[in-house]
Amino acid sequence: MSWEELERRLDEDAAALFDTVEFTVKPRTDGATVNHRPGPDDTRAEFPFEGSIEFNPPMTRGATPDQASGAYEGVNSFDAVVTAHDDGWAYVPRRRDHLATHDATYEVGAIHRDGSNRRVFYVNRAK
What we know:
There is one protein chain. The chain has one helix and ten strands; from the N terminus they run αββββββββββ. The chain is mainly beta. It has a single domain, classed as Thrombin, subunit H.
């Protein structure tokens, strides 16, 4: 068995064990201007996935870019972190997209990849 095959199986086994929360990706568009609220993005379809959620993660350094410079600076805090195995997804959710569970909706604030086939979404409760 190759290293890549072992890594793929490990990702799938970890997902089967930890990814127990049902989410639905609800794609969003930016507002027409900075004064307009984002709305649903009809060009990307919603899709379900299973993931894990951890509330009150530690603050992160440089998780979101500075608006003016684009540099990753400062310290950010988020309500929760969602992780999920992204194999077979139609697309990767973007910043400002919503991740909905049966009882809450979260807005993606930052996205990271942990070096495997898992995505890490730093989220806040959507308004």
